[in-house]
Amino acid sequence: MRPKFHSLKVKDVRRESRDCVSVAFEVPAELTEQYKFKQGQYLTLRETIGGEDLRRSYSICSGIHDNELRVAIKEVKNGKFSGWVNRELKAGHVMQVMTPTGHFTSELNPAQSKNYLLIAAGSGITPIMSIARSVLQTEPGSEVTIIFGNRLFHSIIFRDQLEDMKDQYLGRFRVFHVLSGEPNEVELFSGRIDHYKIEGFCKSFIQIDKTDEVFVCGPEPLIRTVVDFMKEKKLSDQQIHFELFATPGDGQAAPTSPSKEKSEEQGSKCSVTVVYDGQETNFFMPMNGSSILDAAQKSGMDIPFSCKGGMCCTCRAHVSEGHANMKVNYALEPGEVEMGYVLTCQADANYRKNHCGFRQTLIDPRSLKLSIIFCDPVGVMKD
Ligand SMILES: Cc1cc2nc3c(=O)[nH]c(=O)nc-3n(C[C@H](O)[C@H](O)[C@H](O)COP(=O)(O)OP(=O)(O)OC[C@H]3O[C@@H](n4cnc5c(N)ncnc54)[C@H](O)[C@@H]3O)c2cc1C
Ligand code: FES
Measuring CA to CA, which residue among 158, 146, 132, 145 is closest to residue 17? Predict the structure, then answer.
């Protein structure tokens, strides 16, 4: 199923902490199938705010059996979208909501008994909450441990729900809070979640050699630390899952400058064929220039995107002919890159710099042709 926007009515807006609300949407019966989600996936919301057409991704926080579609949105400083949602959005408002996408998930099976280690910081708890709830609901033999970092006690999102889950799933669910802005007499529970802290948790509470799946969501340094630690402990890439909400520079693509646009007009061009929703569109795009996504938009195509920062995967497509190079990639797995998938918001048509592992064949740049197929966000090619 390709990602698609539909107008959904906001069912309720609930305050979860001082600077975070959760928003539930009404899904009409005829769209129920389209909005079925996997734990850990996200929605892209679209709204015109201050005259600007904005899209942002927000992870679903409900469990797959909760029978609700809910995201949680933490207000960031000077944040256009998160500020508007936290201060102005009310129940009854109708909003453009894309069908669920994302890879931050694993297959659930009621017959399996696994140990899940989930690590989150701040609003990173949102997909972690969905994963924890879904695992506990679906796999009666599995155990879930959350290590959750925050600055202050009152800023902990879903604090009460997490406590309730401890009672509901006694013996199968644990949550450890680590606060960086409040002292705690137990050193392990205060400060930032770093390498030493994770090692401390592994010595005292977690048997890492018996851990089957690790999910981490938070700032980039936390993700790097956890991924490196788990690799040291010999967990495989398939067992380690991460989701990044923002890069240190926020990664949003810089607008193209007029001088760059001029040099793009004069420089060599590449012929591109983009297939989306069964429709084929052909256009020329500058090499070494703008992203495939930008070029496709300039040619009038309405193709899916959200973060434009290489984080969300909404713009994923498959290169079936030619080469494209990604500037950054926080979302695709190494295996997907090897298979020829790219994030079109990060990929340009520079055949010379081949950083991302595609097969390299010798092509005359004057005849360079790139064919891109937009495909199912969870991996099934339809075209
Ligand atoms: C796959 C994915 C899932 C996400 N899920 C969630 C979620 O469940 N809950 C949630 O609250 N957010 C989530 N985000 C982040 C969200 O999409 C927005 O980036 C965030 O709400 C900021 O948007 P804004 O318009 O308010 O800020 P903008 O107006 O875009 O930016 C304002 C300022 O905030 C900085 N900034 C942008 N994003 C962040 C951030 N995440 N943290 C700190 N500073 C930031 C920018 O550098 C800028 O200085 C997710 C992002 C991705 C890619
Ligand atoms: S739009 Fe998010 S990765 Fe390209």
Answer: 158
